[in-house]
Amino acid sequence: xxxxxxxxxxxxxxxxxxxxxxxxxxxxxxxxxxxxxxxxxxxxxxxxxxxxxxxxxxxxxxxxxxxxxxxxxxxxxxxxxxxxxxxxxxxxxxxxxxxxxxxxxxxxxxxxxxxxxxxxxxxxxxxxxxxxxxxxxxxxxxxxxxxxxxxxxxxxxxxxxxxxxxxxxxxxxxxxxxxxxxxxxxxxxxxxxxxxxxxxxxxxxxxxxxxxxxxxxxxxxxxxxxxxxxxxxxxxxxxxxxxxxxxxxxxxxxxxxxxxxxxxxxxxxxxxxxxxxxxxxxxxxxxxxxxxxxxxxxxxxxxxxxxxxxxxxxxxxxxxxxxxxxxxxxxxxxxxxxxxxxxxxxxxxxxxxxxxxxxxxxxxxxxxxxxxxxxxxxxxxxxxxxxxxxxxxxxxxxxxxxxxxxxxxxxxxxxxxxxxxxxxxxxxxxxxxxxxxxxxxxxxxxxxxxxxxxxxxxxxxxxxxxxxxxxxxxxxxxxxxxxxxxxxxxxxxxxxxxxxxxxxxxxxxxxxxxxxxxxxxxxxxxxxxxxxxxxxxxxxxxxxxxxxxxxxxxxxxxxxxxxxxxxxxxxxxxxxxxxxxxxxxxxxxxxxxxxxxxxxxxxxxxxxxxxxxxxxxxxxxxxxxxxxxxxxxxxxxxxxxxxxx
Length: 645
What we know:
Strand content: 5-15%
Transmembrane segments: 388-408
Number of strands: 5
Coiled coil: 329-382
Distance between the termini: 98 Å
Shape: rod-shaped
Radius of gyration: 58 Å
Strand order of the largest sheet: 1-2-3-5-4
Signal peptide: 1-19
InterPro entries: HATPase_C_sf (IPR036890), HATPase_dom (IPR003594), His_kinase_dom (IPR005467), Sensor_HK_TwoCompSys (IPR050482), Sig_transdc_His_kin_sub3_dim/P (IPR011712), TPR-like_helical_dom_sf (IPR011990), TPR_rpt (IPR019734)
Oligomer: single chain
CATH class of the domain at 500-636: Alpha Beta
Pfam families: HATPase_c, HisKA_3, TPR_12, TPR_8
Order of helices and strands: HHHHHHHHHHHHHHHHHHHHEHEEHEEH
Mean pLDDT: 79
């Protein structure tokens, strides 16, 4: 078992190591390609090509298709810029083969485009058009193109414009140049705008619209200079030079071509021949055939290696005209024959018709696609409208249901409030009845304990007296009856103190204190300041509050002295009830009888505040403060104060 475990672990480690090595090697492919591109931009062509070849070799050894695809695409572009069209074509075909194996549509489009460029450079315009149309078909199949997809489409439109201009189809060439420019502007890609302007400038110049061509040529130059793109700047100078030559501004044309010459050291190969051709043509138009021939011969040396066949046509035609101007008719005839030979092979009517047929098929496909997309859009809009209508109906239904729920909820709440109000009214009535019953019980006790006992004593004296005691018994009976009358008066005042309504609140409180005070309890009443004017209901409730406080003092405090003080301060009324009784702990207030609770409830009815201070053996002080305006709100409710001591 241990041997088997060790073997499995070894295999795992070996596999892991191989995966790490493979990952490192594939990353090396990408690194070599990126390094090659950087060297290419720096003008280090030999070093760049070395890295490209090394990347391709490593990708093939690893069977790394993604790396091979990337290598073939970038190396193909490198070879194209170095006018090595046959080698570039073979790399483009490798790119197509790998992309088809990977089913990578986007890179299939790149491969078709690269193959088209090589055929165009070789003058095989029919094949170039066929492959370029296939690239455009792949691009047009994308329903929701990304920014990268739009950039690819712009490139294909620009290359199709160049192809049509090589065929001297100026209208179509300009049309696709404008399409490419519109996409570049949509992408806000400055470099892409510049390369799209190249073909637009050429199309306008070839069509004789020199003012428009000059304007776009200057825009192209400004972009090249601002972006520090040497190749773009060089093309702008060359095109402007040709435009100035066609405008017969020969001095400016020569000066512009000279500016191109100064950029050649920093530009990739294949550009010098165009500068020499431009200078040669300018001298030819000036009639300076010797100077024109000098630059023509220099251009001819480079032409076979650097010029694509469509451009060779223009060189041979211009050379024939120069030789004729010099009187070298034999050389002129030879150049004319070469011109006609290449022109026939490149621009014959059959090829032109085939390219037009391909372009028409593409346009038809695009129109059919546009119609299909329009129908699809209409269908989607109808579906969207149906969904919208459904949502509207659902929303309206939901709102209606919600409104019904709210209405029912409101009705239910109203019914609940009515029920709660009824319950509360019943509770208040029950409390009122209980208060009345308590009041009746208290009155009965006072009558029984006070008046009844006095009258019983009087009865005993009446039955127990004899004739010798009559005078003394009459006096005693009179005192007892007077006492009973006074007790009945006190009870009457407590039950219905009309004195509050007749004599006023302050007088009623003073009178109450006087009645309560006796030999065992000295109760003083003080009035300070002018008491605020209150409604009779509020005054009656305050009177009951003081009654409750004094009743607690008499029943529970075991006090010998007490004070009731009323202080008026504008709209505020302060009431203080103090005693020197045994006191209690306010923390245990809830455990006491209902006397203080009733007092506090009545104060809250008047929206006042109260404070009870007491401690065992240190007496009790009750402080109440009432705002006259808030107390009047109580009176407005029409509630009658009920005493339940």
